[in-house]
Amino acid sequence: MDKEQINIISDTQVYVHEQLATEGSGHDYEHSTRVYRMALWLAEDETVNEFVIAIAALVHDLVDSKLVTSETDALDNLNYFLEGEGISSKDIEHILTIVSSISYHKHAHLDSREAEIVQDADYLDAIGAIGIARAFMYGGSKQQLIYSSQNDESTLQHFYDKLLHLTEYLHTDKAKAVGEKRQAVMEDYLISLLNEINFN
Ligand code: ADP
Ligand code: NI
Question: Least enclosed by CB within 10 Å: which of 64, 114, 127, 162?
Answer without folding.
Answer: 162
